[in-house]
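Chain particulars:
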Amino acid sequence: MNASKLKTLMVYKFLNQFSDEDNPLSTTDLIAMLANEGISSERKSIYSDVSALKQIGVDIITVTSPKRGFFIASRTFQIPEVRLLIDAVNSAGFITPKKSEELINKLKALLSEGQAKDIASQVYSEDVNKCDNEQIYIIIDQLDEAINSRKQVKFIYKTRNIDKENRKSYTTKTFTVSPYSMLWKNDRYYLVCNIASHDNLINLRLDRINKIEILDIPARNISEISEYTDKFNAADYSSKMFNMFSGEFGKVKLLCDFEMKEQIIDRFGKKAPLTAVDSDHFETEIEAAISDGFVSWVMQFGNKIKVVEPQYLADMIKEKALSIAEIY
C-alpha cells in the first residue's frame, strides 16, 4: 500500500481508538504513535491527513483548549447506545459468559478507549444464569439459514434433571422440526417450530439445542398448523405467549380493577379494548395461548383480575390456587 495512504489510515485508526472530547490527540501524539508503527511523519502532513478524513465524512473536531489536538466527535454508535447493547448482552441468558465477554469487547471497540473504560466501570455482569452452550452462534446461524430456505432441521435437545438425592443428570431427545422463527422473550432465546407428528407450534430454548443439521426436506406450511395463512407473524405470536408456554389460542374475557389498566395496556397493547363495567371495574377481551404460563400471569395479580371466559380457564386458575393453598 502507498505509504501516504497507509499513514492517513493509521491516523484515522488512532483517532478512532484513543480520541474523544476529553482526550484529544495532538499532532505530537499522532507523530509519536506513527513512529511506533515505523511510519515517519511531520506536523504539516498530519493536518493534511485530518483534512482528507474530514472530506470523506469523518467528523473530526479541532480544539485548542485545554489541550490542542483533534478528536472524533460523532461515531456510528454513541455512548448510551453502546451501554444499552452491553446491558442487553449481559442480561441475555442464552449467551455464554465467554461469548458475552467477547461481544462486549467488540462493542467497547465502537468507542474510544477512554469512553469504554467509563462504561466498563458501570456495568454489572451476572454469570449465574448464563448458559454453557458454546455452539450458540452456530446454532443461530444454521437455524436462520433453515428458516430462510424453509427446510426442516434435526438436532439433539438437552434438558437437566435432578433427583431427590440432588444428583444432576441430563435427558437428551432427538427432534426433527419445521422451524419458523427465533424469538427473544423473557431474557431467553426460543425457536418456534413444529414437530411433524403434531399439528401445533411449540417453543424450544436455543441454548438447549446441540448437533444441529439442516435437512433437505421442505418445512411444513405454517398454515397447516397455525392461524397464520401465509407467513408466521412473530409479533402477534409473541404477544399471545405467556412465559413461552405453548397452548391453544383462544379468546379470553377478563374483569379487572381500574388500577390494572396500565398493566393490561403494557401487556396487550393500546388496542386492547377496555370497557367500563362499574365505577371500579372494566372488562377486556384478548386472544392468548391458554396455558400454565397464562394461569401464572393472571394469578400474580391476586384478586385484581378475574377470568370471566372461558370457564375451563377459570377452573384451571381455581385448581392452581387450591393446590398452592394446600402446601401452606
Summary: The chain has eleven helices and eleven strands. The longest strand covers residues 168-185. The CA atoms of residues 221 and 278 lie 46 Å apart. The mean pLDDT is 86.
